[in-house]
Amino acid sequence: MVDALFLGIAVLTIVSAIAALEMRSLIYGGLALMGTLGGIAGFFILLDSPFVALFQIAVYVGSIAVLILFVIMLVKSELIFQKKEDPKRRYAGIALMLILMICLGAVIFNSGLSSITTEEPPVDYKEIGEDFLIYYWPALIAMALVLAGSITGALILARRQDAVEDEQRTD
Amino acid sequence: MSNELIDFVIVSVALLAIGIYGLSVKRNFIRMLFAVEIVINAANLNLVAFARFLPHSGGQTFALFSIAIAAAEVAVGLALIIVAYRMYKNIDVADFRSLKG
């Protein structure tokens, strides 16, 4: 049986995910996305994984959502409220979503997952540290390089190119 | 623990379906990024839920890797949005006819 806290977090997460995609203003959409990400962090706490929950809050709610809000504010205000959609495409999208939910839901309900519960103690976060530093250290280094590369790439992409444009104009 | 594994998996499926709806219907670049984030979070929820019920620490480790890589992906995605906005003065993906400067 699910408890009330689970139901509350599930409703918050799913409703704010829909609101993030359907709200007219992108800024409110971004705030609703923060609700979804926070709800997922709540699920992580329910799953006895406080370390991942704190990481989720620090990285997603703390930095990614704020970064998204800043980028939204860099865009012209009429584009923030603009909502161009093909109605046919929208209905097809809703049908696709429902079909996916029903098919995957049927598969999951008919699998053996419905009987799985656990009484075992949760994983200690020390084990996660051991995983990172003993088994997955090459992946950790690769991830650090990927992060550094992507941040550098993002900065190079987004840098202002006024100087280059001025040179082209004088040519 | 009173909740069962299937409850978390069902929420994850719902989030995945909402994310795929957003990716297929929305034409706004930023909203598509929102949809990608929702799909990635659905995957992370699944990983952590299975890690709790097995129980095994691998799921949480992979979820942490996934969150870090998603941060990099968002940084590059937002930089692309800024570049595209500068080039086309719009964030509608239907208007992005070519990627040439």
UniProtKB/TrEMBL annotation, chain A:
Gene3D superfamilies: NADH-ubiquinone/plastoquinone oxidoreductase chain 6, subunit NuoJ (1.20.120.1200). This is NADH-quinone oxidoreductase subunit J. The keyword Cell division does not apply. InterPro entries: NADH_UbQ/plastoQ_OxRdtase_su6, Nuo/plastoQ_OxRdtase_6_NuoJ. Keywords: Membrane, Transmembrane, Transmembrane helix. GO terms for molecular function: NADH dehydrogenase (ubiquinone) activity. PANTHER family: NADH-UBIQUINONE OXIDOREDUCTASE CHAIN 6.
TrEMBL record, chain B:
One of its GO terms (molecular function) is oxidoreductase activity, acting on NAD(P)H. It comes from the Archaea. Its EC number is 1.6.5.11. GO terms for cellular component: NADH dehydrogenase complex. It is a multi-pass membrane protein. One of its GO terms (biological process) is ATP synthesis coupled electron transport. Keywords: Membrane, Oxidoreductase, Transmembrane, Transmembrane helix, Transport. It is an enzyme of class 1 (oxidoreductase). InterPro entries: NADH_UbQ_OxRdtase_chain4L/K (IPR001133), NUOK/Mnh_C1-like (IPR039428). The chain crosses the membrane at residues 6-25, 32-51, 63-88. It is found in: Membrane. Belongs to the complex I subunit 4L family. This is NADH-quinone oxidoreductase subunit NuoK. The lineage of its organism: Archaea, Nitrososphaerota, Marine Group I. The gene is nuoK.
